[in-house]
Automatic annotation (TrEMBL):
Taxonomic lineage: Bacteria, Pseudomonadati, Aquificota, Aquificia, Aquificales
SUPFAM superfamilies assigned to the protein according to its UniProt record, in alphabetical order: Thiamin diphosphate-binding fold (THDP-binding), TK C-terminal domain-like
Entry-linked NCBIfam families: PRK09212.1 (NF006667)
Organism name: Hydrogenobacter thermophilus (strain DSM 6534 / IAM 12695 / TK-6)
Keyword Oxidoreductase appears in the UniProt entry: yes
Required cofactor(s): thiamine diphosphate
Pfam family, one: Transket_pyr
GO molecular-function term, one example from the UniProt record: oxidoreductase activity
Superkingdom of origin: Bacteria
Domain Transketolase-like pyrimidine-binding: 1-176
Protein name stated in the entry: Pyruvate/2-oxoglutarate dehydrogenase complex E1 component beta subunit
Keywords assigned by UniProt, alphabetized: Oxidoreductase, Pyruvate, Thiamine pyrophosphate
Length: 324
């Protein structure tokens, strides 16, 4: 199943079961969404449940907050995470805080979903990875997934929660085809071990997971065994799964597309150093994007983010330099 079709199926199933589930955003109705994630839902559920909005991100999120306060379960789409900056007042000051500040009297069962990341020559203002911004805000859950099965179950889980969720997707995952299956008792708060290994724990999420898995296949040929962990929840992070793996491998690598500074890799590396210092045989390695706005030129664009080849080269050099 295509990644985008898995999200569409989750939205459809949620809307079938619960009439309170409402979709709103730019072009989500008749057009079916900029990435066709909501394709067909307007025809099936009508304009009162699949609502095309003006190009006004702060109003989209603010309207969804009001809907949630009044008993609906809105799913708001921001066309790209780059445009979420226009909605940050609502996200940070209302969406994240109203339930807490009301002592739990106000429930906010709402989801704001958005694609992010480097596509193919979308240039600097349309290629950002902003998960670190959302994950730094208390009061929000931040979810993501790297495949169709995870996307389906994570979307359903987020819609059913009574707390606000930021649901991050990646623009290059939408057309990717994956094996799809139903999972009993799916828990997005639990990280997934996608590959077992004994030498290095590699933590990643979203599209980078696939580059990591391919790089680790090549590292296996060089005699380096990697354990790959996919994060589905970025706030909170399942540190227990990471700690357990690091106890075994004694080494940690975190791979992410955003610039290295102040990213999820910094947080994960710091926590592991604080809690697992005496288990480590090497300092953690962060493989991340460069400290530049994403270039438009394709060669420069690829040089600004981790790729399968660069992940492999950096991990091989680092591993050989630390006893592997």
């Amino acid at each position: 199943m295509l990644y985008r079709d898995a999200i569409n199926l989750a939205l459809d199933h949620a809307m079938q079961v619960d009439p309170r589930v409402i979709i709103l955003g730019e072009d989500v109705g008749f057009y079916g969404g900029n990435y066709k994630v909501t394709d067909g839902l307007f025809a099936k559920y009508g304009e009162k449940r699949v609502i095309d909005t003006p190009i006004a991100e702060n109003s989209i999120v603010g309207t969804a907050i009001g809907m949630a306060m009044m008993g609906l379960r809105p799913v708001a789409e921001i066309m790209t995470a780059n445009f979420s900056m226009l909605a940050m007042d609502q996200i940070v000051n209302n969406m994240a805080k109203l339930r807490y500040m009301s002592g739990g009297k106000i429930a906010l069962p709402m989801v704001v979903r958005m694609p992010q990341g480097v596509g193919r020559q979308l240039a600097a203002q349309h290629s950002q990875s902003l998960e670190h911004m959302f994950a730094s805000i208390p009061g929000l859950y931040v979810f993501c997934s790297s495949d169709a099965t995870g996307a389906y179950h994570t979307t359903l889980y987020a819609i059913r929660l009574d707390d606000p969720v930021i649901l991050l997707e990646h623009v290059l995952l939408y057309p990717m085809d994956f094996e799809f299956y139903k999972v009993e008792n799916f828990d997005p708060f639990k990280a997934r071990i996608l590959r077992e290994g004994k030498d290095i724990t590699v933590v990643s999420y979203l599209k980078m997971v696939h580059d990591v898995l391919r790089a680790c296949e090549n590292l296996e040929k060089d005699g380096i065994s990697c354990e790959v962990i996919e994060l589905i929840s970025l706030r909170p992070i399942d540190f227990e799964t990471i700690y357990s793996s690091v106890k075994k491998t004694k080494r940690l690598v975190v791979v992410y597309e955003a610039p290295k500074s102040f990213g999820l890799g910094a947080e994960i590396s710091a926590r592991v150093c604080e809690e697992m210092f005496y288990f480590l045989d090497a300092p953690p390695l962060r493989i991340a994007g460069e400290e530049v706005p994403i270039p438009y030129n394709r060669k420069l664009e690829l040089s600004a983010i981790p790729t399968q080849e660069s992940i492999y080269r950096q991990m091989l050099s680092w591993g050989k330099g630390h006893g592997l």
